[in-house]
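Recap from last week: sequence in, structure out.
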Amino acid sequence: MKRITLIALCLMCITGTVSAYGLDLSCPESIQAGLPLKCSIDSDFPPGTTFDIVFYQSQYTATELSRQPITIQEDKLTQYKLIDTKGLPGGNYKVEIQYTSKGEASLRSGSKTLQLVTIIDRSNEITITSPMTQSPDEPLRIEGSIYKIGNDGVKIEVRGPDGVLFDNWIGTKENVQSGAGVFTKQVTTFQPGDYEVMFTDAKGYIGTMTFHVVAPATQAITTVPTTTAVVKTTKAPVTAPTPWPTATQSPLSPITALVGIAGAGLVAVFIAKRN
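Predicted structure tokens:
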């Protein structure tokens, strides 16, 4: 009886081991703000199993910032996910893996599905004194200082529309009063656009500043059409004189005409007799 019970317990252990899977999430414990957070995921879940890797900001409450799917492949090799931290303030964050496939996931002991991350923001250590908006007619002037680095130098990477234009260390000159490291560098640009300048010192990434190279606005020459005033000559109205009424001759009847002729003949005879 004891032997049967022992075998049953062994079978239960084996069954539990087979149905439970491992899942391991690994991310850096801290990172400079602006750099991508690179996390690795290892798992022996069956191929096709899908999870979400969720990024939260942890303050008084957890606020979800991003979510990316991840699916286990046939080879079950380590997979990597990049989480954008650009523009995020310094503080506490967390990364969590959430199971999204159908059914329930049984995890082995030792699995890790949550990682706390601290984002360090050093961007306020950069002071820029050159204009952030410049003309493409001259090299881009990158001038300013880095807090408390003295003469240790700073690495700058200039990236624009055409890719990386400069990536190297430059010297800094210590400001005796503040201990800041003053720097100046000119980089030739080839076209207008936004140019990101990434600063790094011996302690790591500091921050990124964006310069705007803008061509001066050209005023369009507006041609004002010459208009010739059309002078209209208006003649004074001429009033035509009212014509006199035209006498109209009434047609005579034949009887009246004969009477007239006879009268004229009698007058002629009378004059003849007197002569």
